[in-house]
Amino acid sequence: MKNLFNNMIKNICNVAIIFLLTASTSFAADKVKLRLNWMYYGSHAGFALGFVDGTYAKHGIDLDIRSGNGSSSAHRLVANKDSHFSYGSCGAMTNLAAKGAPIKSIGVIDAMGTEAILVRPDSGVKTIKDLKGKKILTTANAGVNTFFPIVLANAGLSESDVNITSVPDGALVSSYLQGSGGAVAILGGLDDKPAEIKANGGAQPIAFPYSDYGVNQVGYCIATHNDTIKNNPDLAKRFIKATMEAYAKAEKNPDAAVNAIADIVGGSMAEDAGRAQSREVLDVTLGILYSANNKKKVLGLNVPSDWDSMVKLMKKYNDLDKNAKASDFYTNQFIN
């Protein structure tokens, strides 16, 4: 009887060891590359918080966050499978997907657009029509370029009425502050660019938000390759779940999110002024996590009516395929 009991204990122990070994193999973290739209700024603090506090790790994700050089570039890197997920302009993603890029939005962070024309207060420009004949700076891959023609058209201007000039990535604000080549304005987001301008010694810019000129758009989304959706839906679901948990935590404790991004980036972002700038930017993002049409306030939701509105605009003004349906560009299958 004693031998029988000992053998039973031994067998139970062996089963337990096999289970633990199998479990450790099955739940090994997936290495995942997230491509941001730009160099780190406050809107990215939710991702940083999820990385630092272990939220992604809890969901079996070994996250590698990479900075980018524009929304279009970030989404292209997902389309060519350099990166697993991207965070960038939904409009820019839609343009690429309509032209054949195999990508789709699987979640939204900035539910509404913050894009604007930002004008030097010493330029003499008082209305958007005063920009006629003026030089405006942007960057080649910026998502803010997508809807700029619509703004001009709705303001009674054409693209030929302004001198739109691309500058190197990372030089946008410095070129604006220097008035490079007589430039009086830049295209940028109200979430990050005014804070960056002020942090670099500039005055609060005059803003002409795109939303004042008929551009109601979905802001910034998380996109992934169609193959990931089809062949690895579990990874997409875990990534979205972890991301939404992280941004929900950032909502409750934005200072923790700011500290997380400071920990990752260091340098000036870890100084008091850098933290203050990050917090100012993050507050804008946290203020637009839900659109007016997201009645139940489901974090990350691709709201069908918001997408319908944006795609309708793009068909009218951006030569988007007339046969495209808004639902071609997003899925909510990973949103709880």
Write the layout of secondary structure elements.
Blueprint: H1 2-26, E1 30-35, H2 45-52, H3 55-58, E2 61-66, H4 71-79, E3 85-89, H5 90-98, E4 103-110, E5 115-119, E6 135-138, H6 148-154, E7 163-166, H7 172-178, E8 183-189, H8 193-199, E9 206-209, E10 220-225, H9 226-231, H10 233-252, H11 254-265, H12 272-286, H13 304-317
Parallel strand pairs: 1-2, 1-3, 6-7, 6-8
Antiparallel strand pairs: 3-10, 4-10, 5-8, 5-9
Walk me through what this model shows:
The protein is of the alpha/beta class. Helix content is 43%, strand content 16%. The termini are far apart.
Summarize the biggest pleated sheet: 5 strands, mixed
The ordered string of helix (H) and strand (E) elements is HEHHEHEHEEEHEHEHEEHHHHH
Main-sheet strand order equals: 2-1-3-10-4
Tell me the helix content: 40-55%
Query: Strand portion, in percent?
Result: 15-25%
Provide a compact summary of the structure.
With 336 residues, the chain is α/β, with parallel strands linked by helices. It is 43% helix and 16% strand.
